[in-house]
């Protein structure tokens, strides 16, 4: 077991001029990444950052992100990524939790008592040999608003150490290339990118998601690993066929998708396009109590599943905490098989029950073979006329319509049924009408699941990581007093 820093030094010594990261027209070699990361570490140390501190990283997708991570790890500090576009109130709430000694990506002097460095800052050349080699006890501390919208930090239970005896994770082939179109302040994109870097892959990072641009990066760099969320998969699939099929994707070994439910029709379309053997799905929370993986061929035999669980790590219960029969939907409880915690919260308390079980609020069921199938978050479920309605199921069908760019389904108060199903649609109203959507959905959904009301908007309802805050959308549409 060696430190992340030792691993990066070893890779740089092996191939100093190999490209570590590319992002748009920028790129940086392994040796230069170490040099600039160490320069920043010396600068931060001089201004007070020490082992165990947090370093908040508030930069858009860029090489700066990785320089900041290397600097934090070199000091034994914990990088704490956030969106560079956070509203001030949410940013202040996160800083109160993290109490970082430094912030990267903000204006100089923006936060008194903390080192504040702008995007693009490059520390002067410096000798880092006087800095002791220490291992960050938590290698990352991303944030999550979850369904509540209240920020919390999820501090990793894993140190910044690398086990050279283990095979590369996530089908990361040394010498290959990860194409990353997702925002690095989200956990999945950061985990995949850091694992790629540590396992000797180039990271071809997109400044922001672009459907054709993602395919172009795969062709340009011979990408072997691709990270996707279903929102991205849909946008790529909606490219004109002559454009989408013009790119050479033969180098792709694996397409990983995660972070949000993937509609069956969308997954089938990608399997038909690229082959089932290249399509992999992973389910896990940032908390990482468990993780399931399902291959394309497995999924074809267990359609809709996110993978087979290790016996004793997942329990499905009703509202009273009683285990439900196989095949019945309930709340998903998880229990890590590790002896040490996988995470700790700052700003939140885990939902737990006796026996070491924890819940992230997901609903799901197990089949007789131990495969897990997910529903929606319990907090997002709509109770209408005595029926339990899961927004993700309706959203999946709405997204089949070619005119729909994104959508979100929420429940709004109704005197008769308790709640009524309301659909918010990002689409050009010149291309699809409410009546056309109702007819489209009526052919695919039981009548009580067809939204009663529709609202058309001209902005994306999911971010580039595939996340949607239904609770916030609902709160904006509730009458005052609710």
TrEMBL record:
GO terms (BP aspect): fatty acid metabolic process
GO molecular function: medium-chain fatty acid-CoA ligase activity
Domain AMP-binding enzyme C-terminal: 393-459
Domain (AMP-dependent synthetase/ligase): residue spans on this chain: 9-343
Name the UniProt record assigns to this protein: Unannotated protein
UniProt keyword ATP-binding, yes or no: no
Upper classification of the organism: unclassified sequences, metagenomes, ecological metagenomes
Keyword annotations: Ligase
SUPFAM superfamilies: Acetyl-CoA synthetase-like
Species assigned in the record: freshwater metagenome
Family: Belongs to the ATP-dependent AMP-binding enzyme family.
């Amino acid at each position: 077991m060696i430190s992340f820093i030792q691993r990066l030094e070893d890779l740089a010594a092996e191939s100093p001029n190999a490209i570590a990261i590319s992002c748009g027209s920028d790129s940086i070699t392994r040796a230069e990444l170490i040099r600039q990361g160490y320069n920043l570490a010396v600068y931060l140390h001089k201004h007070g950052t020490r082992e165990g501190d947090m370093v908040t990283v508030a930069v858009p997708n860029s090489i700066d992100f990785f320089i900041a991570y290397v600097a934090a790890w070199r000091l034994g500090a914990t990088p704490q990524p956030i969106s560079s576009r956070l509203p001030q109130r949410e940013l202040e709430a996160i800083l109160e939790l993290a109490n970082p000694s430094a912030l990267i990506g903000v204006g100089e002097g923006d936060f008194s008592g903390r080192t504040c460095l702008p995007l693009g800052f490059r520390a002067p050349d410096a000798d880092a040999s006087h800095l002791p080699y220490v291992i960050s006890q938590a290698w990352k501390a991303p944030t999550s608003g979850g369904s509540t919208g209240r920020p919390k930090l999820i501090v990793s239970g894993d140190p910044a150490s690398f086990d050279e005896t283990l095979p590369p994770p996530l089908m990361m082939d040394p010498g290959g290339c990860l194409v990353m179109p997702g925002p690095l302040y989200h956990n999945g994109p950061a985990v995949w990118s850091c694992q790629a870097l540590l396992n000797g892959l180039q990271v071809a990072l997109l400044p922001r998601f672009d459907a054709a641009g993602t395919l172009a990066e795969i062709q340009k760099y011979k990408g072997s690993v691709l990270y996707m969320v279903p929102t991205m998969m849909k946008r790529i699939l909606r490219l004109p066929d002559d454009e989408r099929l013009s790119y050479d994707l033969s180098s792709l070994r694996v397409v990983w998708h995660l972070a949000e439910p993937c509609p069956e029709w969308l997954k089938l379309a990608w399997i038909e396009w690229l082959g089932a053997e290249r399509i992999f799905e992973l389910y896990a929370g940032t908390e990482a109590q468990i993780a399931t993986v399902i291959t394309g061929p497995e999924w074809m035999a267990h359609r809709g599943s996110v993978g087979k669980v290790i016996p004793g790590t997942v329990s499905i219960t009703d509202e009273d905490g009683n285990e439900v029969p196989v095949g019945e939907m309930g709340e998903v409880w998880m229990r890590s098989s590790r002896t040490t915690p996988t995470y700790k919260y700052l700003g939140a308390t885990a939902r737990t029950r006796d026996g070491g079980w924890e819940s992230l609020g997901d609903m799901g069921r197990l089949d007789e073979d131990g495969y897990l199938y997910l529903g929606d978050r319990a907090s997002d479920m709509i109770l209408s006329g005595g029926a339990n309605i899961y927004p993700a199921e309706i959203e999946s069908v709405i997204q089949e319509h070619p005119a729909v760019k994104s959508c979100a389904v929420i429940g709004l108060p109704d005197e008769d049924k308790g709640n009524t199903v309301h659909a918010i649609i990002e689409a050009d109203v010149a291309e699809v009408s409410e009546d056309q959507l109702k007819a489209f959905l009526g052919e695919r959904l039981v009548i009580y699941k067809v939204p009663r009301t529709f609202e058309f908007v001209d902005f994306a309802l999911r971010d580039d990581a595939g996340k949607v805050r239904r609770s916030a959308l609902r709160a904006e549409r509730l009458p005052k007093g609710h």
